[in-house]
Each structure stands twice: as structure tokens, then as C-alpha cells.
Amino acid sequence: MQTSTTVSRVLAALALFAATPAAADALVDNVTGVALDKDGRVIRFTGILMSPDGKVVKLMQRGDKRPERLDWRADMKGKVAIPGMIDAHGHVMDLGFRALSLDLFDTTSLEQAKAKLAAYAAANPQRPWIVGGGWNQEVWKLGRFPTAADIDAVTGNRPVWLQRADGHAGLANTAAMRAAGITARTATPAGGRIEKGANGQPTGVFVDGAMDLIAKHLPPPTARDRDAAFLKAQEALLSAGITATADMGTEVDDWLTYRRMGDQNLLRVRIMAYSAGVDPAIKIGGQGPTPWLYADRLRMGGIKLYADGALGSRGAWLKAPYADSPGNSGLGFLKDDQLLNLMSRGAMDNFQIAVHAIGDRANAQVLDAIDELSESYKGDRRWRIEHAQIVDPVDLPRFGRNGTIASMQPVHESSDWRMAEARLGPARLGGAYAWAQMLRVGSRLAFGSDYPVENPNPFVGWAVAFTRLDANGEPFGGWRPEDRVTREQAWKAFTSDAAYAGFAESKFGTLAPGLRADFVIVDRDPTEVSQTDLRGTRVLETWVGGEKMWAAK
Fold this sequence. Notes:
Elements: H1 2-19, E1 26-36, E2 42-50, E3 56-60, E4 72-75, E5 80-83, E6 85-90, H2 92-100, E7 102-103, H3 110-123, E8 130-135, H4 148-155, E9 160-164, E10 169-172, H5 174-180, E11 192-196, E12 202-208, H6 212-215, H7 223-239, E13 242-250, H8 252-263, E14 270-276, H9 278-285, E15 298-306, H10 336-347, E16 352-357, H11 360-373, E17 384-387, E18 405-408, H12 410-424, H13 435-440, E19 444-447, H14 458-467, H15 487-493, H16 496-500, E20 519-522, H17 531-535, E21 539-544, E22 547-551
């Protein structure tokens, strides 16, 4: 009888244990939790129950009984918890190297940039080259590109190479051009432009495909340099509340850096890598995408290609000439058959294809290629067009075909609207930064920032997306306000749809049972504040896979 009683007690205990989730070993409790369900509706919760492998078991409600046996419990004392933000288009290593080099992003005039350049040169006498970036002649209100002559006086005989904010042009001083052997006779590479003065001499600015004429002469970074740059970038992303990012343009050396970090248990942010062209993808993945590595923190799943340049440097490929540069329609990087061949080469090995296209001619070219390739490559391909900034309205409905994803960056609109008007004129803006129209034709939006071209702060991009206002609240009522999306649509594009765009929706992207417990503790409820207050959201803690990876000091 005693034995029977003991067995009954054991069975009762097992039944009680089975009544709670078997893998529920941790609880982040007492949160003001806000997320979106699979249909994009706001849901609320008060706790996140997690398994030992860092996945969500259950979102707890106020009246739910908490498990009595836990490995650990964290009390958030009512702070706001939201799903981790995802940047669908960034450049991880560029962000890190920008932090380690001369950063001109905050300069508002040429004179201010020259002062920073002189100070940096004096503080870093051991560097053989001065390297940096972030300049923007539009912000400087210069009315022209800067020149080598503008900076020679403060740099002397040390070579200088400074990339424009968008990464599609660079400024070299005379010493750098001399080191690279650049003369008036230097041939302009395909897909590039060497800016020249009235005397035919290079002025120091090299656009798109011409940038490599200088860049290939830079001292290559060491593995230690790369590790340091990655850690800087990772810190910046986690501190912004970004738990996952697409890395657009991963080189083999970048991949090796991510693998070193993963092997040393230092990889904390999730990276969806898109190789810089076909060759790195084949070298890294062999005959197709890699598996997910390091508990879903790293995968090479796609290939990044370029159809054109950028609007700011007048390298975006347009159907008609620029309104402010007659005779110049920008730069198409690839002939139609070349683009088709590259996309086909990647697609045949099941790599996802993502193509940079900013101008309306470039977007049309990529849409043509997708239409043709979709006849041969069936199934769930999720073709991506990166930026899709200027689209001819007649081409917009084509984004709703073939599962094409519009991977766009709201902050570009707030930075570019004045320039876009000058570059195109008012009659050609019907498909410019057309987020709402993309959704109406059936495309799926994936939002990001294009860091370090822009600041990676996702809350700024989120605010821009549903207001179309810049940091100064301009223009009144929003620029082309008919293309605003709702607050919830914008949030979805920065979370679950950004994950979907990287074939990661079964791994992460929101807070739901079975997905990785990636979340952010913030100082305000982003669904209940003004757009101005949303921009000022402060990240307090960032958790990836149920582990606290960053906390504000």
C-alpha cells in the first residue's frame, strides 16, 4: 500500500510537471510587453517564458499562473518589452570600419570637414593613409562636389580617401591620386565616372565603378583590424535595439570574421549574409546557401548585385536625364544579359537574389529580369530589390508579381526629399519612395537603414515611415503623404517581414512560441507615443536568444 501511495505521488508530481511547459526554464517577468501577431495586430503580454535553448515557450498574460520551478527569473519592474528590431539592409563591417576611421557624417560644411580632417591627421601620424567617409555635398550646401584642391592644404603628402555618405563616390587628395597613378589619361571603368575639371584633369572625386581605382591601393586591414571593426559594429547595432540584420555585400574576409567571432562565442547579433556578387557565395556556400550556424546567428543565404549607383552622386540610372544635369541619365552597371546571367547563376544554386536598384531605369531592368527568370526558377524565390527609390509608376504593379520584396529604407526619404525634387523635378516623383503603393500592389516591405549611409537607429526609420517627416518635422504634413504606411505596417516591416525577407521567419522576427527570444527593453511604449517621442526611444537592454547581450550603462 505504501508503494502504491508513493507511485501515486510520483505520478501526480509528473502530471503536475507535465502541466507546465517542459522546456520552460526561464522567465522574463513583469514587463509591459507589446508585439505584433502574425496578422500585424498589436498584442500585449506581461512575461516571456523561455526554453533552455533561448526560444519563446509562451507569452504570459497578467492572470496566468507562473511556473514554480525555474532556472532563473528576471523582474523587469514594468518596463516595456518589444520584439528585437531587424535591419533588412545594412553593411556590418563598413559600420565598424567607419567607427574606427575619420567620420564626417555629422559635418555640415566643407570647412567643418576640413577641420576634422586636420585634427584626425594630427592625432594619427602613424597611419600611412587617412581613410574615412560620411561627407555629403548636399548637406554642406556646396553646390558642387568637393575636390582634391579643397583638402590638399590640410593633408599634405599623406594619401587621403574619403567615401561619400552613400558609399557611391569617394574623394581622394592629390597624394592619393599620385599613389594610384591617376592622370588625365586614366580610362574610366565601366559603371563608373571620374569627375574632371575644365582642364581635363581629375578633380579627386571618383563615382561608383571608378572608386576602385583608388580603393585598391589602400593598405588592407588585418584580421585583428577586422575583428575590432566587427565588435564596434555589433555594439552599435545592439545598442540601437537591433537583434538581427541583413549584411548586404559580404566578402569572404567578412565571412571569416563572423566565423571567428562565432567560434569564440562573441557573435551576439544575428546576421543574414548576402555575398558581394556570385563568386564569394560559391566560395562560402559551395553549391548553395549555408546552414544556420551558432544557434541561428549566421547564414549565407543570398547574393547581392548592383544595377546602378546612387541619387546623390547622380549615379542612379534613370529613364530620362536628371532635371539638374541635362544629358546625364546616371550609370547602368550591367547590360541586360549580364544581369540575367548573374541572377541565373545564383538562382540555379538556390541563393536568394537581391539587386540594388535606385533609379527608375534600373528598377525596370531588374523587374524585367525577375519576370524572365521566374519562368525558369519556380517556387519560393523571394526576389529582392534593394532601395527601389525611384520607380516609374507604370512599373509599380510589377512589384506585386513573382513574390518580389521591396527592401526599402525610410530614412532615405527623410534625408533625400529635397534632393529628389531637384534631381527629378516634380513631374517624376509619382513612384518615389512609394511604400504605401508597394503594399497596395501586393509587394512585401522589408525596412532597414542602409547603415552606415544612415544611422542604424530603427526608431527613427519607424517614425519616418508613418509620417514622412524629417528630423525637423518637415515638410509640413509629410512629403508626398499619400505614401505613408501605418505605424503597425512600419513596425512589421522592421520585424517579422524583415525576417521573412531573409528566409528567417521560422527562426526569429517577432515574439511567438517556437521562435528565438529576441527582444528589447525600452523606455516607452512605441505604439502610444508621438513620432517625435518615438524617435527619442532609449534602448535599455537588448536580449538575443534569451540572453542579455547589451545593457545601457
